[in-house]
Amino acid sequence: MEYNTARNHLIMREYGRNIQRMIEYILTLKDREHRQQQVMAVIELMGTLQPHLRNVEDFRHKLWDHLFLVSDFKLDVDSPYPIPTRETLKSKPERLPYPKKYPRNRHFGKNLEMVMDKAIKEENPEKKEGFTQVIGNYMKLAYSNWHKESVHDDAIKSELAIISQGALQYQPGAGGGAVSAGPNISYNVPGVDQQQFRSSGGSSGSAKRKSFQQNKFKSNTGKSNKHNKYKNRNK
């Protein structure tokens, strides 16, 4: 009986020992044409054993690389792809330079500083004012994310002035009024006062809600009295 401890090292376990034995047999063939035919058959068999590689781009290129790897780069055949070597396979990639950025205010991040620098260099007063309002609103959002509470506009205004060294002045409420609870719908009806129309509509809506709540309370009271009646009858 032959044990795995007595066999040679299995280079790629994904293909098994039989594929490795086939490649070792191909290395012993002296006829180049016959060796090329056997290699093409082994490539097809390797693709059948690894069907998930068919979804990978250039999967046949990967199969040929695995073939030369299993043969220990000793196989002398014609390949449709560049033949890999031991040096290219084990070469390490170049080290990527890590971007070293040290923001002045880390709780706001580097992107906000870039926007502030762009706003300071902006010459158009309208665009500069728009940049300032966006920066102030983002500072309020960042403050609420860090502290889980609202912040006063004067605090944002003073902090922005300190960070920008007085170049940007945040104006609270310049971007628009307060946010309404619902859509403001206006109806242009000739001969009807808009203010009176809104007030009447609101009063009718509140009256309907009030009457609905009263009817619901009466229905619930009737049900409770009915249950009490049955309880008394059982007694």
Give a verbal description of the structure.
With 235 residues, the protein is an all-alpha fold. Among the domains are: 76 residues, no CATH class; 57 residues, no CATH class. Helix content is 57%, strand content 0%. It is built from 8 helices and no strands. Helix 5 packs antiparallel against helix 6. The termini are far apart.
Secondary structure topology:
Blueprint: H1 16-28, H2 32-49, H3 59-70, H4 86-89, H5 110-121, H6 125-147, H7 153-163, H8 194-234
Helix pairs in contact: 1-2, 5-6, 6-7
Number of strands: 0
Average the pLDDT over all residues and give the rounded result.
76
Beta strand % = under 5%
Largest sheet: none
Q: How much helical structure, as a percent, in the residues?
A: 55-70%
Radius of gyration: 39 Å
Unreliable parts = 176-205
* Number of helices in the DSSP assignment: 8
The secondary-structure element order is HHHHHHHH
Distance between the termini: 91 Å
What are its keywords?
235 residues, mainly alpha, 0% strand
Quick synopsis:
It holds the Pfam family DUF4290. This protein has 235 residues and is mainly α.
